[in-house]
Amino acid sequence: MDVQMIQRDMPKLNAKVKNISMGGMFIQTDPVTINEKTLVDVLIYPDSIGENSGIHIKAYVIYKNKKGVGLMFHSYDHVTFEMLSRLCNYRSIITQKTSANCENLSVSQF
User: Fold this and answer.
1) For labeling, which of 14, 18, 62, 97 is most exposed (least CB within 10 Å)?
2) Torsion angle of C-alpha atoms 85, 88, 94, 100, degrees rounded to 10
């Protein structure tokens, strides 16, 4: 799944989602020069769940390594919550794993 990470005054970074939950995700990137605790805009393109446009979420960079960047979602509205919830459930079904990361969460927890 494609994703773009956008930081002020920096070019857009195109990446691939490797792991996603309701609380955050890990994206595979080339080595990046971004500081931890930086707030970024993230656009997720979930072409497989019928969305016409990307899911927009603000996130903090919580770690980075040579394989990519770990992001913790900062805030999102109820519409984004629903889209992200469907995406997590869809990916859970596809990989035949439980969706434990996507259960028992509410918008107020973010």
Assistant:
1) 97
2) -110
Which pTM does this prediction carry?
0.75
Q: Give residue 87's pLDDT.
A: 81
Report the distance separating Cα 10 and Cα 101, nearest Å. 31
Report how far residue 67's alpha carbon sits from residue 14's, in angstroms, rounded to the nearest whole number. 14
Domain 2-99 has CATH 2.60.200.30: no
In the structure encoding, which two tokens stand for residue 55, read together?
């899911």
Domain boundaries defined on the chain: 2-99
Contacts by residues 100-104 (CB-CB < 8 Å, ≥ 24 positions apart): 101/21, 101/22, 101/23, 102/21, 102/22
